[in-house]
Amino acid sequence: MCRAESYGTTEDDSAQECKSGEDSSENNSESSSESESDNETDIRKSEANSQFRCEHVKTEHIQKEQVTPRKLSGGQFRLKLEAEGTYQCTVTGLIFDVTKAAVIKYSVLSWSKYADYVKKPWIVGGPIFDVSCDSASVLTSIQFPHSLSLNDHESDMTFKVLHIRSTGPAIEPSVDHSMTHVKWHVSSLSPVGPVIQTQEPVHYNGAVILYKVVNNHPSLSFRVYVATNNDSFIKDISNAVKHSDKKFIKIDKPPVCKKLQDGKRYRLISESEAEITPEEMEFVDGSLLKLKSYFEVYLEQPMEFTLSLIELESEEIVWKAKLRECDWILHDQNKNERKRNTISNRRRKSSNSLSDEEFYNKRPKKGRDISDGTKAKTTLTDQQLMTLAKKMGKDWKEIGIECLKLEMKDIQQIQAKEEEVNVHKFLMLEKWRKGEKSNGTAQNLYDSLKDHVSYEIIQILEGFL
């Protein structure tokens, strides 16, 4: 049982009054009465806050089994749970409550895609996920990790979730929250993420992420991102770097920093002389923004140096890291080693190329020669579409709309037919093939689905190429 701490009791006040003498007893009596009233109020508040925190401590310590998912293509994860229980994903922090054995698939999404649905006074509270389960009724609740650094004002916060239903977005109530998670009873499975509403300043668990520009110039150039510790935000940063015109490597430094406050200004400084642009930056949770802000750090000559992130008002250092030459030299050595191995492999292949070519020419040709891509250019057959349809999960309608560019009316027309669900999936793929005409090929379908479907479907499509 948790006990509330109280500060200043009425007995202490009485003792102080006795020491001050009896001449001002009436004034002291009035003062004591007021002080007693104030203290009782403070005690009640302290007890309420303590009780509030204790409830969340209980929630956090519910026994849960740690499970590591299998990673599928397109950043999707797959968990096969063998029995009823509470399970926590070791990669994403998601917590699932299931009533019996289940297979759950999920992936981290970008909040920027749903920015239009998060309107004031609501703000993003943590990463957004797309979750599916082979039996939706088995998955009773999900606990989403949040990125907030909670304090005594957490009781003033309203925690809910944004649920992107097939009928449209909806703000739905949560059933509980802890220092790390927001719990939601599953109503249906589609993109869901935590949102909050509060009148108090918002404090976040922060992360500082570093990338170094890779080029042949001896100078050093870095991007330093200051973010909430939110997988959706961090994934957006990774994608921005990946699609940049420049090449980058990630510098492995402890990313977690002390709490960041929305609206506060922060400055990045270097102990060695470096050009840092901008000099300072106002922190905002950029989860909903497509373009993420960052500091650019430039050093003319390569050297060891230390970076510190400082909150300007208090001058507190909230993050600090020392960067050494070995942090990026090792990467270059590994890259050169891979290059040498590649060259060595090519030489070995070259020495055997004649016999391999002779063997290939003597081989009997079975079926169509796909070396010129003829097979990849052939329109998919009904049999191939049915094979794919049988492997699609409950998110087939979302895939049809998002990846195959069908409209909701197309899906509704398909569902109106009294057929088994695999036939509905087949009819969706057939609708796509008709629309693509001569481009209804395995290659075209592969390009459309590769980042959104399971590894098993990707393997089948690759077999069709």
UniProtKB/TrEMBL annotation:
Compositionally biased spans, kind Basic and acidic residues: 41-51
UniProt domain Death: residue ranges: 381-465
Subcellular location: Cytoplasm, Cytosol
GO CC entries: cytosol; THO complex part of transcription export complex
Cross-referenced CDD domains: Death (cd01670)
A biological process term (GO) from this entry: signal transduction
SUPFAM superfamilies for this protein: DEATH domain
Keywords, comma-separated and alphabetical: Cytoplasm
Pfam families: Death (PF00531), FIIND (PF13553), UPA-FIIND (PF23679)
Domain called FIIND: residue spans: 58-337
Stretch list, region Disordered: 1-51, 338-375
Principal subcellular localisation of the protein: cytoplasm
InterPro entries linked to this entry: DEATH-like_dom_sf, Death_dom, FIIND_dom, THO_THOC1
PANTHER family: CASPASE RECRUITMENT DOMAIN-CONTAINING PROTEIN 8 (PTHR13265:SF1), THO COMPLEX SUBUNIT 1 (PTHR13265)
UniProt name for this protein: Caspase recruitment domain family member 8
Source species: Gopherus agassizii (Agassiz's desert tortoise)
